[in-house]
Amino acid sequence: DALRRDLTIGALLLRVERRPTSESSSGLCYDLLDFYGGVDDIRAGVLRSPCPSSSGAAAEVLVAEVRAAVLRSPAEVEMAEKLGLDARSPEEVVQVLWWAKVLMDDPLRICRALRFAAKFRFQLHEAFWSAVPFALEPLRFYELAFTKTFPPGELRLAAALLGGKDFKVGSDAAELIGGLMAAAITAAEFEKSDGAVAEFTLACFPAFESLKVVTVVMA
């Protein structure tokens, strides 16, 4: 169950047991179960997706299994090549691709991660920016629904996705959220570019430039 969560900070589990404390009474005892480093991520102020891990020769096997599970189309394989995943360590590849799987399953988790980053002043793990492009195609379905209500390109669209109260946080991170999501799910932006990598870079570049955030590599 913890591995299916979208962030390690939400993958912490609490085991509650009733243990005898004396002959006449008993109390509840709590054990925190942290399988994917959620506590360390909270301390470091980092948002990261849980992902399976392995070491040695088994790590290469794990990479192959995750690639087969996530990269199911020629377009997704090409995306991985453009992002330079083959040049990264097995641990980095699994982190990116597993997070991509999580976001593809529910692309609104992109909004959730960005909103948490703004609300809690946490930093998104660098793997996030390589994982997001894989989820842009599923995000199109949400774009179609929201543009029925909000005119394309309006920041109100981002506020609707992310929660109006949190969106009003006066910080660079909030501006990043608005600029990213309003652009990334606007139909015009999707139609003007050649592919998901180009779409994501085009949508994010203005906000990233001001925040000195490294975006995905263009082909």
Could you characterize what this model shows?
The chain is mainly α. It has one domain. The protein has helices at 38-44, 57-70, 74-82, 90-105, 109-120, 127-131, 136-146, 155-162, 164-167, 172-184, 187-192, 196-211; strands at residues 13-20, 26-33, 46-47, 123-124. The strands form 2 sheets. The protein has a two-stranded antiparallel sheet with strand order 1-2. The protein has a two-stranded parallel ribbon with strand order 3-4. A hairpin with a 5-residue loop joins strand 1 (13-20) and strand 2. Helix 8 crosses helix 10. It is globular, with a radius of gyration of 20 Å. The two termini are 37 Å apart. The relative contact order is 0.11. The model is unreliable at 153-177, 183-193, 199-203 and 205-219 (pLDDT under 50). InterPro entries: NT_sf.
- What does the radius of gyration come to? 20 Å
Shape: globular
As for the number of domains, it is: 1
Q: Strand portion, in percent? A: 5-15%
Mean pLDDT rating: 72
How far from one another are the termini?
Answer: 37 Å
Low-confidence stretches: 153-177, 183-193, 199-203, 205-219
Provide the structure class: mainly alpha
What descriptive keywords fit this protein?
219 residues; 12 helices; 55% helix; globular; disordered C terminus; NT_sf
Offer a quick outline of the entry:
This protein has 219 residues and is mostly helical. It has one domain (2-211). The protein has helices at residues 38-44, 57-70, 74-82, 90-105, 109-120, 127-131, 136-146, 155-162, 164-167, 172-184, 187-192, 196-211, and strands at 13-20, 26-33, 46-47, 123-124.
